[in-house]
Structure formats: structure tokens, C-alpha cells
Predict the 3D structure of the following.
Amino acid sequence: MHAGDILRSFECDVFPAIGDLPIAELTPPKIIQILRSVEERHAIESARRLRQRISAVFVYAIACSMKTSQCAAPCPVS
């Protein structure tokens, strides 16, 4: 169930915004744009969870040498 929630949040909010953009090309402004769109729905807690989930993806990408920096960590959520 938890894995399904994570996948649904990415399918609804992240994948449509990034399309087929490689993780190496994602930047903090793009992550902030995604999070702000969730916040605009007054889903503040969802935006916080989504930031955590995106951050976990970046941690994995760094461990696998697909990314050299954590782009989601500096992104504020209201």
C-alpha cells in the first residue's frame, strides 16, 4: 500500500511535470515548481511528503553515480 501511494504521487505530480527529462538534468527550480503546484491545491502535507520522496530518489541517484548533488533538499515547502 505504501509503495502504491508513493508511485501514485509521482504519477500525479512528478512525472507529468518532468516528462522524460533525465535525473541528471533536474534542478532545484524545477523541483520547486512541482512542489508549488501541489501547494496551490492546499495540499501542504502532501507537498512535504513529495519533497521527501523526491529527495530519496536523488539519494539513490547519487549512490548510483547518476547525479552529483541533492536537488530536493534545499527546496522549501510552506
